Each structure stands twice: as C-alpha cells, then as structure tokens.
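Quick one from the shared queue. A colleague (R.T.) flagged Selenide, water dikinase as missing a structural entry in our internal table.

Convert sequence to structure tokens.
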Amino acid sequence: MRGLTGQAGGDIIVGVDDGDDAAAVRVRDDLAVLSTADFFTPVVDDAYDWGRIAAANALSDIYAMGGDPVVAINLVGWPRDRLPMELMTEVLRGGLAIGAEAGCPVIGGHSIDDPEPKYGMAVTGVADPHRLIRNDAAEPGLPIALTKPIGVGLLNNRHKQTGETFDAAVEVMTTLNRDASAAALRADVAAGTDVTGFGLLGHLFKLCRASEIGAVIDRSSVPAVDGALDALRDGYVSGGTRRNLDWVRPHLQVGGGITDDDLLFLADAQTSGGLLLIGEVPGYPVIGETVAGAGINIR
C-alpha cells in the first residue's frame, strides 16, 4: 500500500488512511454504505466449517463498524484439477448457512482456477453515519472490552500439524459478531475494531495509533479459548504470530511477571475473532483501559 492513496471526496467517511475494518460512504445524511472483502486459505480440514468460518470472518468487518450486512457475494479460488467440485460445494454451503444466520443474502460471486483453495466474501452493509464504530475515535480514560476469547491461532496451528480438532475454536470462529456489535451501539461505543490477523496487540496498536492515544492491558483479564494455553505451552506458535509480536514490540511497555509466552498469546493471529471495543459493554469482560500518551503497557 506504500505510495498508494485512497480517493478523496466529501461523502467518503472512512477510507484507507487508518486501515479501518470497512470503507464507509455517505449516501444520505442518515445512511452510510459499508464495503469490505476478505478471503483466505483453509484454517480447518472440514470444508463446511471452513466456509462458515470464512463467511463469519468477512461479515465481522461490517459488524465491527457498527453496521448491518445487507448482501454478500462469494469469492472462490479452487484447484479444479486436484480437488473435487463437491468439496467446493460444501465450502459454499457453509458460507450460505452463516449468511442465512446473519440475515444477509449471499447472491452469486466469482471463482477462478487457483493452485491453492481460497474462500471468502465481499460484503456490503449499511450503518448510521453518525453512529459508526471507528478505529480513530477512541479517547483516553475509557475501559477496553473484548467480546471473544483469543487463542484460535494457536489451536488452528496445532490442528494443521497434528490433525487434532478443537470444537471450542470452531465455535468461536463461527460465532457472528452481530450481538456484540448491537450491544456496543446500545452502550454508545464510538471506537473499536475486530481482532483478526494482527492479533489483539496488533489491532489495539492500530487503534491507538489512529486515535493518538495509549492503552493499558491487564494480561490476567484476557480470556483464552479452551485449550489455547496448552497449545502455547507445547509450542504451536505460528510464524504470523511471531511477526505480529516483532512488529508491535517496539511500542510495548512490559511489566514485571509478563513473559514472552504472555506476549505471544496476546499477539496470536486470530481468524474471525471478537470485537475490541473502547467503552464498557454489558456482558463482555473489560481487559484494560485507554490512556493519554502512546504505546501499550502490559501488566
């Protein structure tokens, strides 16, 4: 993206400047259109579950902005000479199931012949332009809430290496962020993001940088998916997670008693993770607070 700039315009509310979850364009004073796309290679062996996870992950960007998805289209790369088309049908069936759960029609899409299978969606949503949840709107002195436990990256990596399956991870990844988004709006939350590939620390750092604030995280308050800490102990840390930590480490202040394993857990690359919300949201744990200044203090 270096050297590229987004288009400017009076109706572009959210563009590419701060790497927010979706683009937002005002079409009326009371209506913004949100647009996002996401796809990835398989994170589980079960084709139907992969479709469900990829769809929930794509829809999450709309929910992270405080919006409602209204239509999605499939994005598919498929090695037609190596994998049966019936398997692709199962992936698409999983995506349709999540779309139906979200009340978001999945209408067609586009596919290409690809040596490695890929699946996801482009999603269009709508939101009140005056109530968007943005990553550049955080203020100091507010609680930080997290709506899903983290650690699915550790379990997915263990799954890839051993074949073990983890129902808890699949449950987290296929749970829509719809209810969390609605709860955030009811609580008048103005700032937030979802936790995906950059991990909790990476997405929090992006939010802090965009909002020109700092944050304090209480490691003991961050919930873990069942089995994730065992996978961490046994060394199932992905290369992406290590790169996440390398990227954000210069911006961390680490308190006594915080280990490298703690940092790797907080940097674990998530798929279809929860929402990271600036403000107290009933029903979800508070894991820290925003502060004046810069950087992330982990205690």
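The first helix runs from residue 47 to 64.
The two ends are 34 Å apart (CA to CA).
Added to the table.
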